[in-house]
Amino acid sequence: MTATATTQISPTEVAAWREYVGRVQTRREVLSAETLRRFAVAVGSSSDVQNVPPPLGHWAFFADAPAADALEEDGHPQRGGFMPPVRLPRRMFAAASFRFVAALTLEAEAELRLTIADVRHRSGSAGDLVFVDVERSLAQAGLDRVIERQTIVYRGAGEPAAAIEPAAALPGTGIVWAPGPVDLFRFSAVTFNAHRIHYDAAYAQREEGYPGLVVHGPFTAAKLCALAARGHPGMRMRSFEFRANAPLFAGQPIRLQPGTEPGTVEAIRCDGVTAMRALAGFSDQAAP
Fold first, then answer.
1. How far apart are CA 43 and CA 240, in angstroms?
2. pLDDT the model gives residue 169
3. Which of 79, 148, 156, 288 could lock onto 85 through a cystine, CB 3.0 to 4.6 A?
4. Backbone dihedral region for residue 107 (phi beyond 0: left; psi -120 to 50: alpha; all else: beta)
5. Beta partners for 133?
6. DSSP string, 235-256
7. 3-state helix/strand/coil string of 209-235
8. CA distances to 30, 39, 49, 152, 230 from 87, in Å
9. Confidence of residue 4 (pLDDT cuts 50, 70, 90)
10. Cα–Cα distance between 132 and 72 in angstroms, integer?
11. What is the pLDDT of residues 261-273, one digit of tens each?
């Protein structure tokens, strides 16, 4: 653990990072059906993407593609650039919310507009946490099709996480999902995510203190989004949001099930911990 990983965040640093609020970046890309097809099969959806769009399929597009010499040891892009250069060593995709305004048109150009919406610092028993909110608006033909707000959390290295002890019986009812290393590799590949905790077990255990390979939060979110859609056949999903509460690990069963509140779904870890909760909103209009 480095000295900078344990040094308390100062108000001056937070103020400097908050100067990034309002920063905008725009990208353009043709939405390839083949790119979406690879994402679909990686998350277990139909390869007929023209007729059956995969859950959260817009994540197949506009992947960050830094040069190899612009990556840090953990596989993330180097600090700075569009995002504020928060110096805490651990970076995680903590939460997101979506509004689905209109369907995407494949093989047509689209524009993604990213805006740094907020930078927040909290300090508590878990140490310093810095949250960066990024708004992402994906538009085609002058119309916003998907509007998303992501929350990225930065934290200190912390202590190694204890191995997860499975419960005698996985609680609840629903679909049991047990992603393995190949599943995680394929999801990393289709999203161009080089973070080593998802495919390099030795690094995940030695450097970041996890008991095994970590399941991507967005991978779990896509599985929950699909579960929510299956519970509302013939309806159109208008909104979706999720929050990660605890890590999930490759090779251990995860139960995907409806939550207790209307429209909610959740991912239950093998020890009974609720690792992710999500909420979906639907309209009576049939899905296109």
1. 17
2. 75
3. 79
4. left
5. 118, 151
6. -EEEEEEEEE-S--BTTS-EEE
7. CCCCCECCHHHHHHHHHHHHHHCCCCC
8. 34, 32, 40, 13, 41
9. very low
10. 19
11. 999 999 999 999 9
Q: Which residue, 84, 220, 70, 71, is CA-closest to 153? A: 84
Spatial CB neighbours of 285, under 8 Å, sequence gap ≥ 6: 235, 236
**Residue 277 in tokens:** 């909760």
Query: Cα-flanking dihedrals φ and ψ of residue 198, to 5°?
Result: -95, -10
| The token pair that represents 123 in the structure block | 């300090």
Token couple for 154: 């930065």
Nearest to 185 by CA among 197, 203, 196, 199: 199
Write down the residue that tokens 């509007």 correspond to.
Answer: 147
Task: Please check whether residue 56 is in contact with residue 218, taking contact to mean a CB–CB distance below 8 angstroms.
Answer: yes
Sheet with 90-100: strands ordered across: 24-30, 109-124, 127-140, 143-155, 90-100, 236-244, 274-283, 264-268, 254-258, 175-177
Is the pLDDT at 287 greater than 70? The verdict is: no
SS3 for 256? strand
Distance between start and end Cα atoms, the chain:
51
Q: What token pair was written down for 161?
A: 């996480």
